[in-house]
């Protein structure tokens, strides 16, 4: 490798120009790199969510879950299937082969689900996720304008405004009560006029749509013809007409807005106005859940970023828009408030800032140590150049490979700083020794580099061989730590290149060494460690001589140190990423099946009382049920399967201590019988999980229940286990209506018709 030194010394201007270009491109790459907490990671999991309002768990399993499982079982890339059937919802979770293209498998799953014969009105949604789906920012919005007005402002003004910010992928509202139109049919009036409930259903389905009716084709400018128009108001619904005894599609008509109403007493067979046999009202939909922030009603606003967007930049842009949001909601006059519930940016910025500071301190200490050993400012500066150059080359590689600046890549750079200078130290020390002998400078530098080139190359390649295979590991670990391996490898190879090219050029330009004393032999320095030892050598030589005189003792000491090291390994905690040190805590509250929304809300308020009184808690947001979502996803009356709390801690709070304190305070509330099963999870920084799941399978439900209880008790006895529970729910109360088919047939009804009547009542 010494030919690189000869080539560099012969073309010093070119080396200088290339170095300047590397510095320029490196600085540009550093400023353009996206900032994230962790590298983007696609989860090899797909979830099929299917709401079936009002259905019992047995019905959900038979009519929804089992058909979906059968349909997706043969989809390419699906390795395992798990499902949960609860009252009102079905959740089918699919484990995918790692490396499967999520967009492709999502399309395949959607086609498979579309082919399933689900009950009328039931639709499924296929969801896949990655770390990019974690919200960058979650805001809580409140104002005295009123819930309807606030929701309208957020939906019509704020949501489009935030969606237009560069890098924003989506803006989601939660806690919004959508308006609902209720049609209450006067059964006696409808029967007296010969109108059936089925004809009214068909009437509503057949109106309010645009139907293409072809084109008018004159000699020029053909005109498209459409029939019908949208229904835009409650009056439009009231002015729909249905013909008694005729199908709605054939006999129903719709009056235009402002058209005169039909006579109040139409003749037999005449069209009947919907408003004459039914009451049509518009009002907010019944609550399916609640969202509160710090105990006050609020509307949640979540912002997610595009995969190629900078998390910190997106957060800053959204924060800049907060004053305009407050103004749109009435400002201080209406007590408009926007509270930050969760924000990735501060944690990312502080993590990057801390690692950058530690890296710079490492650089400073490395330079001081080099100066202490080389005792030459010029040689120290020449050596120190290798550190920033190697780091900048690594930044260029990260930018070219599309990686981000996160705690893994920054950690890799911090580790590399102590190693990238080694090659340059060896080279500059040998150059200094050869130049000190006198004679032509350039041949001395080439000779010095030639002597150590093989050694430093072998050393660097060996170190690269340790880190590079990390990027070849399969699965999530490989995908997560691949940027780490790329960063370390790029920095180390760059340090080798710098030590063989830039360091010799700089040494030839700035290095000054005292010439040997008159009459001194050029080889006199070979024996100087023994004849004129330095202070460091005087401390080291006795140890070396003792080890050489007693090699058995030296080997035994080394073996004892190695054995002691291995003995400490079992005491180390083993997990995926450990405590990320985030300032957020999440709490999940599971209540028994059949728990209504009022009871769930009352239980949530008990937890809110604990959060309000816990030191270290800055803000908290609770989501009870499914506010603004589909009704019936797990709890009668609209409540969801779990109540979730998002807790933000103060800047000076210890997340581990606060989490332990919360667990103790929540345990004092009375346990599952009073507040349900509470799970506290914190310190993940928006990534990862500290939960472990054990799957128990059995054919007999009774055996499964007994086995699940035994496993729960065994796991709870393990030291360090907390919040142990099983998700085998007790039977949910339900009412079954059995139809006498013969009597129903006499009345002209079927089981489906009776079911529709019961559902509509």
UniProtKB/TrEMBL annotation:
What is one GO cellular-component annotation here?
plasma membrane
Cite the residue spans of the region called Disordered. Answer: 249-268
The UniProt keyword set, sorted, is: Membrane, Transmembrane, Transmembrane helix
Native organism: Pseudonocardia sulfidoxydans NBRC 16205
Superkingdom is: Bacteria
Q: Which GO terms describe its molecular function?
A: xenobiotic transmembrane transporter activity
Which residue ranges does UniProt annotate as crossing the membrane?
359-377, 452-472, 484-507, 552-572
| PANTHER family tied to this protein | PTHR32063, SWARMING MOTILITY PROTEIN SWRC
Record has Transport as a keyword? no
Q: Name one Pfam family in it.
A: ACR_tran
Q: What is the recorded name of this protein?
A: Hydrogenase expression protein
């Amino acid at each position: 490798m010494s030919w690189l030194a000869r080539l560099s010394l012969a073309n010093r201007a070119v080396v200088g120009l290339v170095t300047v270009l590397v510095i320029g491109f490196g600085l540009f790459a550093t400023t353009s790199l996206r900032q994230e907490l962790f590298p983007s990671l696609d989860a090899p999991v797909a979830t099929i969510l299917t709401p079936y309002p009002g259905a019992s768990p047995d019905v959900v399993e038979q009519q929804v879950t089992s058909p979906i499982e059968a349909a997706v079982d043969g989809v390419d890339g699906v390795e395992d299937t798990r499902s949960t059937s609860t009252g009102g919802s079905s959740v089918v979770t699919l484990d995918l082969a790692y490396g499967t293209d999520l967009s492709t498998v999502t399309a395949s799953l959607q086609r498979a689900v579309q082919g399933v014969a689900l009950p009328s009105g039931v639709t499924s949604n296929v969801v896949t996720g990655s770390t990019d789906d974690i919200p960058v920012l979650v805001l809580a919005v409140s104002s005295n304008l009123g819930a309807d007005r606030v929701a309208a402002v957020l939906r019509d003004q704020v949501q489009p405004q935030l969606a237009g910010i560069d890098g924003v992928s989506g803006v989601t509202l939660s806690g919004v009560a959508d308006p609902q139109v209720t049609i209450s049919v006067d059964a006696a009036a409808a029967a007296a006029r010969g109108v059936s409930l089925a004809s009214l259903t068909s009437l509503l389905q057949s109106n309010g749509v645009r139907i293409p009716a072809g084109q008018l084709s004159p000699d020029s400018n053909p005109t498209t013809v459409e029939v019908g128009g949208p229904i835009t108001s409650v009056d439009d619904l009231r002015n729909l007409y249905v013909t008694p005894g005729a199908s709605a599609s054939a006999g129903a008509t719709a009056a235009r807005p402002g058209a005169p109403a039909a006579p109040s007493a139409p003749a037999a067979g005449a069209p009947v106005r919907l408003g004459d046999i039914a009451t049509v009202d518009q009002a907010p939909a019944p609550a399916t859940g609640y969202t509160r922030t710090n105990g006050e009603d609020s509307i949640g606003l979540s912002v997610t970023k595009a995969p190629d967007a900078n998390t910190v930049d997106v957060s800053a842009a959204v924060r800049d828009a907060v004053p305009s949001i407050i103004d749109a909601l009435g400002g201080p006059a209406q007590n408009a408030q926007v509270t930050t519930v969760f924000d990735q940016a501060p944690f990312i910025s502080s993590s990057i800032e801390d690692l950058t500071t530690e890296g710079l301190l490492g650089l400073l200490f490395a330079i001081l140590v080099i100066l202490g050993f080389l005792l030459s400012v010029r040689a120290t500066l020449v050596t120190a150049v290798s550190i920033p150059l190697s780091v900048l080359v690594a930044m260029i590689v990260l930018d070219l490979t599309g990686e981000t600046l996160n705690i893994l890549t920054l950690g890799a750079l911090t580790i590399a700083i102590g190693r990238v200078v080694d090659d340059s130290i060896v080279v500059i020390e040998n150059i200094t020794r050869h130049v000190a002998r006198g004679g032509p400078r350039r041949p001395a530098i080439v000779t010095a580099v030639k002597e150590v080139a093989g050694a430093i190359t072998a050393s660097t390649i060996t170190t690269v061989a340790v880190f590079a295979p990390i990027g070849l590991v399969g699965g999530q670990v490989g995908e997560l730590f691949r940027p780490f391996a790329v960063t370390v490898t790029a920095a180390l190879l760059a340090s080798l290149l710098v030590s063989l090219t830039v360091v010799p050029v700089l040494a030839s330009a700035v290095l000054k060494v005292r010439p040997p004393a008159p009459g001194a032999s050029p080889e006199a320095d070979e024996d100087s460690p023994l004849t004129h030892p330095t202070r460091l050598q005087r401390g080291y030589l006795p140890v070396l001589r003792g080890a050489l005189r007693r090699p058995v003792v030296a080997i035994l000491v080394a073996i004892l140190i190695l054995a002691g090291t291995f003995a400490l390994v079992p005491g180390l905690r083993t997990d995926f990423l450990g405590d990320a040190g985030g300032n957020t805590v999440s709490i999940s509250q599971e209540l028994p099946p059949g728990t209504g929304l009022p009871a769930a809300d009352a239980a949530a308020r008990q937890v809110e009382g604990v959060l309000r009184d816990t030191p270290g808690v800055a803000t908290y947001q609770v989501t009870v049920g499914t506010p603004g979502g589909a009704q019936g996803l797990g709890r009668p009356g609209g409540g969801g399967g779990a109540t979730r709390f998002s807790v933000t801690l103060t800047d000076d709070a210890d997340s581990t201590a606060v989490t332990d304190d919360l667990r103790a305070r929540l345990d004092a509330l009375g346990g599952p019988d009073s507040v349900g099963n509470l799970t506290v999870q914190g310190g993940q920084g928006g990534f990862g999980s500290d939960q472990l799941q054990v799957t128990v399978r059995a054919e007999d439900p009774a055996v499964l229940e007994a086995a699940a209880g035994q496993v729960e008790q065994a796991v709870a006895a393990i030291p360090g286990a907390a919040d142990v529970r099983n998700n085998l729910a007790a039977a949910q109360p339900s009412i079954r209506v059995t139809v006498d088919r013969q009597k129903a047939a006499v009345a002209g009804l079927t089981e489906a018709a009776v079911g529709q009547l019961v559902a509509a009542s």
